[in-house]
Amino acid sequence: MNRIVALAWGAAALVMAFWAVSIALGPKGDASGWLMALAFGIAAAICVWRTWREWKAAETQGAGPLEPMANPQRPPESETVYPGAWRGPDIPLETQIDALKEAGLLMAPGRSIEELLTSWPRAAYESDPYLLLLVMFGSEVESEPWGRFFCERGLNFDMECLVERGDYVRAFTQVLRITGQPDLATQLSDDFAGPGRRGEIDKETARITYTMNGRPRTIIARINNDWADPDALAAFMSDIETTIADGRHFWAADNGQAAVLFFLTDSEAARINALRDDILQRYVAA
Hints:
Layout: H1 2-25, H2 32-63, H3 93-103, H4 113-116, H5 122-127, H6 131-137, E1 154-158, H7 167-177, E2 185-190, E3 205-212, E4 215-222, H8 230-244, E5 248-255, E6 258-265, H9 266-275, E7 281-282
Antiparallel strand pairs: 1-6, 2-3, 3-4, 5-6, 5-7
């Protein structure tokens, strides 16, 4: 295609050159004749340049793309590489489970690799090691009977979890579950209004109340459609950490709009982060 275009520009160059020569050699009444000859000459020069450019482009395309030189010291990068992506070798799923067990995170009794594989193929776990497994350690088995978590110390907390009154209670109850002290907070209630008649939230805030260590508590949560207020969640977690006060803290792995929460000692979190750099971060600022 480029050579056809080049030939068209070449024809145009010949026409422009013909007119430039004809005007230059023909009779002229004044200086404007020379200006016209100069203009056609410039146009002819431009057409010649475009002819050369299109012809060279055609030669480059015909040669085909250059093959990159192989670098035996650097494996080819995946097309799905993103900041923070795993760039090491695949790690067997069994190795990951054993490593997390050594760090303090055990699969719940009765859970199995076969159940993990009902959610994701083995290759997905092994090509993105520890992150996907941690997500599943905060999740339920995706088959009946429902309500069976893969790890008793993990919770995949979906921030987009509010639909009706009582949803904060249900969410905070799951947070208590992973501490091993599910009855730490009693009389837990919320007045989240949920969607109004026009599909809008009725109030700007929700009031969450509970009793912890014999003292009543109140948290005011901002309402943002069906999103939980991260500050309200952090306040509840901070209250738990302060009340239990045994050196454990809430740590989280990023899962998009969700946070995969674990209640761990700093040494446990450090051992997990040694498996994959900074995969866990403190949820409540120290």
